[in-house]
Structure formats: C-alpha cells, structure tokens
TrEMBL record:
Residues 10-187 form the Peptidase S26 domain. It comes from Veillonella dispar ATCC 17748. Belongs to the peptidase S26 family. The keyword Cell membrane does not apply. Its EC number is 3.4.21.89. Keywords: Hydrolase, Membrane, Protease, Transmembrane, Transmembrane helix. One of its GO terms (cellular component) is plasma membrane. This is Signal peptidase I. It is a single-pass type II membrane protein. The gene is lepB. GO terms for biological process: signal peptide processing. It is found in: Cell membrane; Membrane. It holds the Pfam family Peptidase_S26. It catalyses: Cleavage of hydrophobic, N-terminal signal or leader sequences from secreted and periplasmic proteins.
Length: 190
C-alpha cells in the first residue's frame, strides 16, 4: 500500500473517532434522543414515541419542578457513578439495532413531589400537602391505588408517577427517586 492510501485511511479513522467522541459528549452532557417504551405515560406520551431529553439538568444536579416530565434511573437503591452516565447512552444506541440491549431501568415519569412534600393517595386521587392535585394530564379520572400512611419526600429526592396511574410502575413502588437518578428533562416529544 502506498503512503497516500495509508494517510487517507488514517484521516478517515481520525475523523470517525473524533465524530464519535463529540457525539458522546453531546449525548452525555447536553441532549439525547430516546423512545418511550410502554403505556405508563398515556395519554401524554405513547409507546414508540421519540423524545428529546436535555441532560444538562442532570449534570448540574438540578431539582425538577412539579409536573416536569423526566427520565429516571429506576434503580434507586444503588449509587450512580459517572460510568452509568456513559453506559446509558451507549445502551440506548445499541437498543436501536438490538432490542435485547434495551434495559428496563430507565423510565419516563412526571414529578409529583419535591423534598418535604407530604403525599397521600386516597379517594382515587393524589393529595400533596393536604390539597388534592388537579391533574388534567392523567389517563383515568380515578386512580385505583390507596395508601393508609402518607409519604414524605426526603431531602434530595423527588416523587414521580406515570400519567396512566392505573398502569404505571413508579415511586409508589420503588420509593422516592434521588435527584442524581433524574437523568434528564423531556424537552420535546415527536
């Protein structure tokens, strides 16, 4: 092989590696496309719908607001590290080509409670700090879930629920979510 061909191949490899590194930095720190998997956010979001997730809030460890739709790591009983932040986008890409690479640990949910809030689940509705929430985004008007004791959201955590309350795994089952497990905010749905 001539030096010209070798140089051309090396230039292409360099360009491809550089593009992949830039793409990874963007996806880890700024934005990431993803897809909804399941029915837990119906009628707001639907199975297979594409989402654009802003990641900057995760990097800055920002507390989401009430009603914000977020992406969470549902493994709330384990500490997250920077390795998780790198691995999650890689698995997201791999799942496009191979469904077996898709994990069930990343969920899309709505923020219902913030630190210090006292949540109650009674009369088919969610109550926050003694007031019934008005939630026009929920799929069903009555939630088939009650709890005899209130939940107080701890400092540094949020309480999240799916809009399809009767068909959602969420903080009612896994508990409050540490803010560092909020992976990003949904900024756009396609």
């Amino acid at each position: 092989m001539s030096n010209k061909i070798v140089k051309e191949i090396l230039d292409w490899i360099y360009a491809i590696v550089l593009a992949l590194v830039i793409a990874m930095v963007i996806h880890i720190f700024l934005i990431q496309p993803t897809r909804v998997s399941g029915e837990s956010m119906e009628d707001t979001l639907h199975n297979g719908q594409y989402l654009i997730v802003t990641k900057w809030h995760h990097i800055m460890n920002e507390m989401p607001n009430y009603g914000q739709i977020v992406i969470i790591d549902s493994r709330v009983n384990r500490a997250r590290t920077w390795v998780d932040d790198v691995e999650e986008p890689l698995m997201n890409y791999a799942s496009v080509f191979n469904k077996a690479a898709q994990t069930n640990d990343v969920w899309v949910k709505r923020v219902i409670g913030r630190p210090g809030d006292v949540l109650e689940f009674k009369d088919g509705h969610v109550w926050r700090n003694g007031e019934q929430l008005q939630e026009p985004y929920t799929k069903d008007t009555i939630m088939n879930y009650t709890r005899s004791t209130p939940v107080t959201v701890p400092e540094g955590h949020v309480f999240v629920m799916g809009d399809n309350r009767n068909h959602s795994s969420d903080s009612r089952f896994i508990g409050p979510v540490p803010v560092d497990h909020v992976l990003g905010f949904v900024s756009y749905a396609i």
